[in-house]
Predict the 3D structure of the following.
Amino acid sequence: MKPGRAVIVGGSVAGVFAGNMLVQRGWQVDILERAVDAL
């Protein structure tokens, strides 16, 4: 499977971890978080 683009909804530890793993495999990743304050 060739790298693609992903949108992860939720910037919790799991969301950031999943995003990081995809980026390491060449994917373009956007992580969306609803929280007003920085995590």
User: Anything to note?
Assistant: The radius of gyration is 11 Å. The helical segments are 13-24. Residues 1-39 form one domain.
